[in-house]
Amino acid sequence: MAEVYVNGKFAGLVDNAPDFVQRVRQDRRSGVLSSEVNVYYDSVIDQIHVEGSRGRCRRPLIVVKDGMPALTERHVKQLQKGELSWSDLVAQGVIEFLDAGEEENALVAFSDQEVTPEHTHLEISPLAMLGVVTGLIPYGDYIQSARLIIGSRNLKQSIGMYATNFPLRMDMDVNLLHYPQTPLVTSMMHELSDYDAHPSGQNIIVAIMSYKGYNMEDAVIINRGSIERGFGRSTYFRPAVTEELRYSGGLMDTIGMPDKDVKGYKSERDYRLLEDDGIVHPEAKVKEEDVIIGKTSPPRFLSNLEEYSLASNIRRESSVSLRHGEEGVVDFVALTENEEGNKLVQVRIRDQRVPEIGDKFVSRHGQKGVVGLIVPEANMPFTASGVVPDLLFSPHGIPSRMTISHLIELVAGKTAALGGRMVDGTIFSGEPEEQIRKELAALGFNERGTETMYNGITGEMYEAKIYIGNMYYLKLKHMVANKIHSRARGPIQLLTRQPTEGRAKEGGLRLGEMEKDTFVAHGASLLLKERFDSDRTIVPVCEGCGVIAIHDTLKDKRYCPICGENVEISDIEISYAFKLILDEFKSLGVYPRLVLKNKY
Amino acid sequence: MHKDLEEYADKLPLKLLQEIEESCPAGKLKKVAKKVFEEYTIARIDAGEAVGLISAESIGEPGTQMTLNTFHYAGVAEMNVTMGLPRIIEILDGRKSIATPSMEIFLKSPHNKGKDVKELALQIKETKLGELVSEYGMNIVDLKIDVKLNVDRLKEFDIAPAVVAKAVEKGMGADASVKLEGDSLTLKLKEKEDNRGLNALYRLKEKCKDVFVKGIKGVRQVLPVKRKDEYLIITFGSNLKKVFELDFVDTERTTTNDIYEISEVLGVEAARQAIIDEVFRVIETQGLDVDIRHIMLVADTMTASGEIKGITRYGVVSEKASVLARASFETPIKHVINAALKGETDLLNSVVENVMLNQTVPVGTGLPALITKKGK
């Protein structure tokens, strides 16, 4: 007696569990039950689970009956003619989707040669085991599975042609690759996903060698000539958005050139790019702090009294300006209304990004690296036939990571480029490496893919034969221009008077608790004090009661809030944070008294 | 002491002076002592060195590496003593009850030759009635329990049935009366107002399993092992005081890993040494290299008050003189308010307080000061 659960709820008991399960499956295949129903029998706990709920991961497989796949030659012919579609096959019960539970009851054959009477299903293609992105990696069966995952993760961060209607879109933080190409070494997934329409990399010549050590620790070296020819060039878009908000009392924002008497008016220079409507003109070159959209807002707090005073008419400056460290060209200006009918202004800034030291590049095998050096073309190594590589990849990146597919793509790419054809590198069914090598040899090259190369600076021949070929490389969206950050002096926090934190706020890098300890351990006491001087303040202290005294700059008088004027007041040097904690103690009802004495 | 060495009596430790005197010819004593004094001065830690912080870093840094590397010794399944980081934390926190108390009992000659180790071990082991019983029979009608003793086990443990009966009688007290017939005991439940019926009988049965019969309380497991040429007993569970009372135990070498017990039985000085030994052993087995003086410093701070204080907010930290230093560690508001109630003064004599105030820390370059005398 097996228990039956429908969508996790107990439904009843069944005498013959295998029979019941078989019948449910039969009904699903013949169309009596929905094709989205899955059933599985757990013989250990004697339970049958029928699932029809949403959110289950399911994958398609070909049904196998008595050792014969349900998909026949006739089906395939009809499919090719277009007489049959995928949904027809599902409706006919030729193909069915299994969820994680039902997979436990299935025995899936990898290829049609393997099918035996025990098998219940046949893999449509080994490629179907992978997702779209992982399927894009060529020769995925020659790589560690962990690297395959890393590779597909990197692919997702690559810059490409994300959408062809990009000039009309106002996407936040997007990158667009110039001159994208389809890879020479493809896979079936490229065809299926229409990769031609939105490629995200470029075919380049890669030599696996070192060059003065500038590609150690996963760095890559790039040929300046290649960059000048357009390799890895991309555009970064970032729109600025603002709207005229309405406030209570009929007040509202105005987009336009701010008046000079507006509260918080910046320098005239900052507004120089604005036109009469208060918005920058397209193709204007903008730099950091430049105002893009001029806007003023009504005063923040409006009391009854102030309504009649002169000061109340002063409006607040609330323009949108370029953030610190940003620059670009105004690409597109859009004026519209939002849902509430308020005026909405969008200005898209475009910035061309030429590869520079620190930009991140990756092959399709999780072999990522940061540009370590850009070498003038004349100084790059070259082959006997005069080919100069676009990128130099360090050989040390290979052994520990075991990314053999990276190496195979290189020869396959070389053969593809020389043979003038694409190479199929689909996982488990790609063109065999041996065949590619033979073809390469037939083209008059060393079948190992190595070539004699010469030092670009001295002209001397390298003793070692260099492994060189064509590869598909991708530029990742992590670029130094978005990350570079430094601070000498800069903004401080209002509360603690300590430096701000984070790149966006031009902040400093914290010398933390443990770092502080290293100074103490070295006995570098005075250096430590200097390092922590950022919030240093001089504070007058009443020697009578130990409370922080008041210095009235107008009258140039000092007095104690408790003891009055006739008491000795001395200046002490403390961190502002300490003054703050004294105030916090006071708020707790604790009276912190400073007792002063001469230090020496 | 030799007269040539008298000059150094206050400058060098006594032990060093004795060594010089023993190992050098009398004529060269003065010269040797001078050289030793020079070397000694160089080796000494300079004034103003932040020893505590250096110790903390020297133990803490390798500590980050040992987190998950716990070793398991093959073959000794039942002896699983806490090692690694959990053990270090346990010691430095000054926990009163540790996870796996264990003793190493050394035996006096001739017992350490191994002939009677097994018997001695069983003598130490805490034996409960449950281990000696082969069968329980519940007599529901008469509210009696028939306990059949395992004769083989009794023989193995060298206990007479009468001894068991006596121990059970003592252990059960007012709950039941005990009668011995051959090798089986009969326990009769003494019914009381709040303890009657079948449930009470069942409870009685469970309780009698835990009755202490023989051995040393707290010693749950014994394991005789051979180390070098002698046999010793490793135990799981610790009771140093009772073990010391046994005449076959070598009290000079027998130890426990329960530092509190050492402190109670042998005093703080021994506890200090135990902390050093235990911490050092863990660090050593992890294959790390920490200078023993760092550990000694920690052990000193833990035991300086005469009792063991852990490096926690209740232990050593609560002893700190500075209010601000205490507040900067944990629960600041509590410390500040308590300090305000007592009217405490912070003299700003240590590191953290001065960092908070942005003043020079009184270590290293922050120590020396120049004082000039004004001319008259």
CATH topology of the largest domain in chain B: PTS-regulatory domain, PRD
Question: Compute the gyration radius of chain A: what is it?
Answer: 35 Å
Low-pLDDT runs of chain B: none
CATH class (first level) name of the largest domain in chain A:
Mainly Beta
What is the end-to-end distance of chain A? Answer: 92 Å
Which series of helices and strands of chain B comes N to C?
A: HHHHEHEHEEHHEEHEEEHEHHHHHH
Structural class label of chain A = alpha+beta
Percentage of helical residues of chain B?
Answer: 40-55%
Corresponding CATH architecture of the largest domain in chain A: Beta Barrel
How would you name the CATH homologous superfamily of the largest domain in chain A? DNA-directed RNA polymerase, subunit 2, domain 6
Number of domains of chain B: 4
Task: Describe the structure concisely.
Chain A is of the alpha+beta class.
Topology:
The complex is a heterodimer of chains A (600) and B (376).
Chain A: E1 2-6, E2 9-14, H1 17-30, E3 38-42, E4 47-51, E5 58-65, E6 68-69, H2 73-81, H3 86-92, E7 95-99, H4 100-103, E8 108-109, E9 121-122, H5 132-135, H6 145-156, E10 174-177, E11 185-186, H7 188-192, E12 202-208, E13 220-223, H8 224-228, E14 234-243, E15 254-255, E16 285-286, E17 291-293, E18 295-297, E19 316-317, E20 320-321, E21 328-337, E22 343-353, E23 360-363, E24 368-375, E25 382-383, E26 391-393, H9 404-419, E27 423-424, H10 433-442, E28 450-451, E29 453-454, E30 466-475, H11 513-522, H12 525-531, E31 536-542, E32 550-552, E33 557-559, E34 569-575, H13 576-587
Parallel strand pairs in A: 1-4, 8-9, 11-27, 12-26, 13-24
Antiparallel strand pairs in A: 1-2, 3-4, 5-6, 5-7, 5-9, 10-14, 12-30, 13-26, 14-22, 15-18, 16-21, 17-20, 18-19, 21-22, 23-24, 23-30, 25-29, 28-30, 31-34, 32-33
Chain B: H1 14-23, H2 29-43, H3 51-66, H4 84-93, E1 102-106, H5 117-124, E2 127-128, H6 129-132, E3 133-139, E4 144-149, H7 151-157, H8 161-172, E5 176-181, E6 184-189, H9 197-209, E7 212-214, E8 221-227, E9 230-236, H10 240-244, E10 255-256, H11 259-266, H12 268-285, H13 292-303, H14 323-329, H15 332-342, H16 351-357
Antiparallel strand pairs in B: 1-9, 1-10, 2-7, 3-4, 4-6, 5-6, 8-9
Helix pairs in contact in B: 3-13, 4-12, 11-12, 12-13, 14-15, 14-16
